[in-house]
Amino acid sequence: MYRIGTNRKKLQSMLVISTREFRDRQKTYLDEVDKGSEILIRRAKNRTYKIIPVTKDDTLMSREAYFAMLDEGLQSIKEGKGTEYTLEEIDKLLGL
Asked: What is the pTM of this model?
């Protein structure tokens, strides 16, 4: 393990570890990610992975599914099935 550096604004560190070290101390490194540290796992053949927590704002759908959903929405609008809203109504619906 070694530290790449720290971000002075957030005091965030980046840890670079091997796959074996991650496997042996998985809970410790996941706890570090929860505290704001960035973890990079180095693997053979010059492959590196970054561990980041999933947040409520993250979407877990494929790129294909996302674009299919957009296409379906656009088709509905073309067919006149859409609903028109003012910006004020959108803000109200979003609780802004």
From this structure: 0.51
